[in-house]
Amino acid sequence: MNKEKEPKPNNISMQGLRVQPYIHPNGTLQQLPQIIIIGVRKGGTRALIEMLSLHSAVAAAQNEVHFFDWESHFQRGLPWYLSQMPYSFPEQLTVEKTPAYFTSSKVPKRIHRMNPDIKLLLILRDPTERVLSDYTQVFYNRLQKHKHYQPIESLLVKDGEINLGYKALNRSLYYRHMQNWLQFFPLESIHVVDGDELIRDPLPEMKKVERFLKLEPQINTSNFYFNKTKGFYCLRDHGRERCLHDSKGRAHPHVAPAVLHKLHLFFHEPNKKFFELVGRTFNWK
Ligand code: A3P
């Protein structure tokens, strides 16, 4: 990218932050994130940040901040970004999640400029499942607004071929987006969480996340229980039990088997490329 054209965040360097942070009387302050969950949309990003928040050394931003991908936010500069962060104790790590970062080509460079040593978490699931989940989310949003929605098959297939113009398909071409990130960050800075495994059995995935972040092992089996009604694991934190919002874990539409087969075939090569990039495989169809 042309350096001249890249808008700069306000004039503070994150390593040598010059503005004096406001320290609350209880000793907490706002810190720039040392960890960012960059995506992928519908990968299980909410589950991941909620599960990570179970750790006492982690403070999580409640909302998706969209600092690096939305121009109107980015122009406000790093002081604004900092103001979006939760109050935390100095020894705690701050994490924010904005799933759209993964698929936005300008974001890796911007994050790198803020902090080249930042730790990135990327949660992925079977790309076909992710497309169906993406469709389901848009379907419900449109339903709420009384807007027209198309059947999924008509979005997935055009003139008998997979419709490359469907945005949700592009978001599932993980290798393309990963290539952008690897231009700025070494693979060791990006931990890929297996989103399908996080659904099936969250603890082992969260233990790997703890290790990657060099956190003291703390998350344990008592933090999770399976809720049969929801059909997913829910969280237990200091005796308080809670499941994710109803919008997480929705039923997906039925897709004609022939279309599903086409989709699996379509993702075969891109998946292989992704496995080569990250040096590991995933159990995707
Ligand atoms: P579905 O609603 O399609 O099943 P995101 O938070 O990135 O939008 O991802 C949403 C997905 O998180 C859900 O997609 C669901 O499958 C997955 N998920 C993972 N663990 C979950 C949990 N414990 N409870 C609910 N959803 C979970």
Tell me what the structure shows:
Helix 8 (174-182) runs parallel beside helix 11. It is built from 11 helices and 12 strands. The chain has a single domain (3-127, 172-248), classed as Rossmann fold. With 285 residues, it is α/β, with parallel strands linked by helices. The protein has a 5-stranded parallel sheet. A 3-stranded antiparallel sheet has the order 10-11-12, with no helix packed on it. The structure holds adenosine-3'-5'-diphosphate. Adenosine-3'-5'-diphosphate binds at residues 42-47, 99, 133, 136, 198-199, 232-233, 244, 248-250. It is found in: Golgi apparatus lumen.
Supply the key terms.
single chain; 285 residues; alpha/beta; Rossmann fold; 5-stranded parallel beta sheet; 3-stranded antiparallel beta sheet; 11 helices; 12 strands; disordered N terminus; binds adenosine-3'-5'-diphosphate
Task: Explain briefly what this protein structure is.
The chain has 285 residues and is an alpha/beta fold. The protein contains 11 helices and 12 strands.
List the uncertain runs.
1-5, 7-17
pLDDT averaged over residues: 93
Name the CATH superfamily classification: P-loop containing nucleotide triphosphate hydrolases
CATH architect. name: 3-Layer(aba) Sandwich
Number of helices: 11
The SSE order reads EEHEHHEEHEHHEEHHEHHEEEH
